[in-house]
Specification:
Elements: E1 34-37, E2 42-46, E3 49-54, E4 65-67
Antiparallel strand pairs: 1-4, 2-3
């Protein structure tokens, strides 16, 4: 992505990992993960469980904001 220069002209698979702390007061709430637009396809996992994906069957996938 343009915001991360080493990947600006990259092509292929990339993996990002992020550790987050969820406050106990959010327990039982419905949460949404917003990733913005991603240049290609994606699959998102949380704790090893697939949360969502946007693949080749999605029209203009490159321009669709990701909300899972």
């Amino acid at each position: 992505p343009a915001w991360y220069p080493p990947f600006e002209k990259a092509s292929g698979e990339a993996v990002w990992r992020k550790t987050v702390s969820i406050p106990p007061s959010w327990n039982g709430q419905i949460l949404q993960l917003g990733l913005g637009r991603i240049k290609a396809f994606d699959t998102v996992f949380v704790n090893g469980t697939e949360l969502g994906s946007t693949g080749p069957s999605v029209k203009d996938a490159w321009n669709q904001p990701r909300r899972y």
